């Protein structure tokens, strides 16, 4: 169950889908993304999880929730609601994206406030800025930035979904879910991530010492350059 990030659509996962081979993969869209409405529901990860549940197959058993960036918050909320065997993998994601008490390896809230202001003033400029942040640290950042921009242009998110997503990133806090989930959990982090500091891996391990952790080279979206490596990590989690 691959849950995409802010500003993108399920198509961002295509390289990972190919790397996973014959595995059954479900690609739901977040509210206000991928052509779906009700973008306002994304402000609350639990409400967003209920919206995603509406897209899940009826015969779903033992899901592996994989959430990238903002999708990690929604994956955590989905895991909190699921009753039965499951697994969870965060990809460049944490249960809280902004600095808080006892949570310092995170974005300053002023950074997200600046994103929100730029969204209202000049959305294309924000998308270029965001794509550059995601691509920073990659082996070929210019190429990855263009790939990310092309993905956003191919399936533009609704303004309501973008606004609500920034609210979720600012205020969402699912640390108790990560710490207490009765299921195997894992996280894939990046050393040069401009949006989720690599130091957050230590904070994740402090809350969940049994978590499987992998810190890769690259930045926030560098898994797109080497989807096979991420697929291998997912296979380890599922073993």
Describe this structure in words.
- By secondary structure, the protein is α/β, with parallel strands linked by helices.
- It is built from ten helices and five strands.
- A five-stranded parallel β-sheet has the order 1-2-3-4-5, sandwiched between helices.
- Helix 9 links the parallel strand 4 (185-190) and strand 5 (212-216).
- It starts with a strand and ends with a helix.
How would you sum up this structure in a few lines?
The chain contains ten helices and five strands; from the N terminus they run βααβαβαααααβαβα. With 239 residues, the chain is α/β, with parallel strands linked by helices. Strand 2, helix 3 and strand 3 form a beta-alpha-beta unit.
Mean pLDDT figure = 97
Radius of gyration: 16 Å
Number of separate helices = 10
H-E order: EHHEHEHHHHHEHEH
The outline comes out as: globular
Tell me roughly what share of residues is in helical segments: 40-55%
User: Got a strand count?
Assistant: 5
């Amino acid at each position: 169950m691959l849950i995409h990030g802010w500003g993108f659509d399920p198509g961002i996962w295509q390289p990972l889908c190919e790397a996973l081979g014959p595995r059954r993969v479900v690609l739901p869209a977040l509210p206000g993304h991928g052509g779906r409405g009700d973008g306002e529901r994304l402000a609350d990860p639990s409400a967003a999880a209920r919206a995603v549940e509406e897209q899940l197959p009826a015969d779903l058993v033992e899901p592996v929730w994989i959430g990238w960036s903002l999708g990690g918050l929604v994956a955590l909320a989905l895991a909190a609601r699921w009753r039965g065997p499951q697994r969870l993998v965060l990809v460049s994601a944490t249960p809280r994206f902004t600095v808080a008490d006892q949570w310092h390896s995170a974005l300053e809230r002023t950074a997200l406030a600046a994103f929100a202001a730029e969204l209202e003033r000049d959305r294309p400029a924000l998308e270029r800025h965001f794509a550059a942040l995601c691509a920073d640290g990659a082996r070929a950042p210019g190429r990855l930035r263009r790939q990310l921009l092309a993905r956003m242009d191919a399936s533009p998110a609704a303004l309501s979904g973008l606004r609500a997503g920034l609210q979720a990133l600012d205020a969402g806090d699912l640390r108790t879910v990560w710490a207490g989930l009765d299921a195997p959990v894992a996280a894939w982090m990046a050393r040069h991530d401009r949006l989720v500091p690599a130091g957050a891996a230590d904070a994740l391990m402090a809350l969940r010492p049994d978590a499987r952790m992998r810190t890769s080279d690259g930045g926030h979206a560098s898994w797109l350059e080497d989807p096979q490596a991420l697929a291998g990590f997912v296979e380890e989690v599922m073993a």
